[in-house]
Amino acid sequence: MTKAVATNNVSDVNYHENSFEIFSLIWLGINVDMKDYLGIQRKLRTIINHQKKFQDGEECRRYIETRSVQASIVLIVNDQLGIEFIPSIHELRQVLSIHVLCKTKSSEEWTRDFPKVKSVVTDLDEVFCNMRLDHQIQRKTEPLIISTFSTFDDAGKSTTGINGQFIFSQLLIDCILRINSNEMDKTELMSYCKNKYENNKSELSNILEFQEHYFSNKAIWWYSRECFFYKILNASLRKQDIHIMFLYRSFVSDIYGLLQNHQSKVPVKVYRSQLMSLAELEDLKQHIGSFISINSFLSTTKQRQVAIFYMGDRVNLTDSVQVLFEIEADHKVVTTKPFADISTISYFPSESEVLFMLGSIFCLDNIICGDDQMWVIHMTLSSDEEHALREVLTDMKNSNGNGETSLRSLGKLLWNMGMLDLADKYYRRFVNEISLNDPLRMTLFEELGNIASQKGDYDKSIEWHKKALDVQRKNEIDEII
């Protein structure tokens, strides 16, 4: 593999190796004046915060291959290295788009065979302009986070794992949104955001603006804006980062309230496009007639041609296909998961965007490949009162109880799902938040002891049960007195 000329500036762009956003930017073999480089780097971080730099093409390829298939990598590469490198990584699902930097536009000819190459430029400022436009489209086509609920047994194949994930995602959303928010958690979230965007002046400015000017009626305005608020929330939903989802709960509740207030009053037909692996498509085909939960907010457009435009050039890949979701939604079936045309409350009021609440449930009606070789996935918004769903959703609601939930509710849910470390974390958090005289302390200590025992930490289990006994004895003495 061809190597670019080495420089002494290898690590200066390697921000946040453990990326907390969905998108990452890789520089390969780009050698420019340091002053110019740092300037464009800062500008590009307003689009994609996480950046990594390579000089060795083989090392870069190995790095990309080790990333999750859910990664979304944007690549900037010089033309000399790119002519060999791009063919080797073009079909990797992790690679979303490529920008080629060259001395002349002569490279445009050979790049025509590679649809992921979005621009061939001679100036890094051109890269910034092209990437900003391209990124606005990429945001509209991010892969959905889907859980499936099967109501039938496919030739004896167990559906326990499939349905378990569906139920857990619904329970988790329901539980978190009903936990009362407090300023301490909001402060923790802002501290987290500031830490993650350290040295990113643009996003730190956005965070300060958010802290000073956020109101609940602007929640969707902030969510639709290209900034930290959307980036971290969507990444936490995609990665199922439960703690960040927990810290965001107040703002997610604000989005929910706005969707309720602006709930569509007429049935709608909306569209969304994305790249999907063949394995994911085949899995969905096996569940036609089943219910699916979208475990993120679902952004759609009323205009079919707009969704197809967002799809971009038809890319022929060996393991992925471009699909179009065609969704019908009747406002009359909505009970707990609203949807709304957000044009009047969005950062981009000109877009005909319809946003569905986090955790919306759809019936997977059909999947067909049209004459134009485009896969179309037909779905219909489902009601909680659907016969096949009613029983399981009722059980879910009973599990979380009515009214406000608590950190104990969240801890119990995680405990039941086998997430013992997280369960322990929220039980401890709850213990630290309640009064020393709270009658629930003894029960919490007992349950922490049981969690520790299941983790195999028997010394800690004994310690928690001793604390429970101490509380019991104190209560008995208080009763005598």
General description of the model:
This protein is an alpha/beta fold and about 475 residues long. Among the domains are: about 25-140, Rossmann fold (3-Layer(aba) Sandwich); about 260-385, Toxin ADP-ribosyltransferase, Chain A, domain 1 (Alpha-Beta Complex); about 405-480, Alpha Horseshoe (Serine Threonine Protein Phosphatase 5, Tetratricopeptide repeat), CATH 1.25.40. It is about 45% helix and about 15% strand. The protein contains 19 helices and 14 strands. The strands form three sheets. Strands 6-8-13-14-10-7 form a six-stranded mixed sheet. The chain has a five-stranded parallel sheet with strand order 2-1-3-4-5. A three-stranded antiparallel sheet has the order 9-12-11. The longest helix has 23 residues, at about 460-480. It is globular and about 90 Å long. The model is unreliable at about 1-15 and about 155-160 (pLDDT under 50).
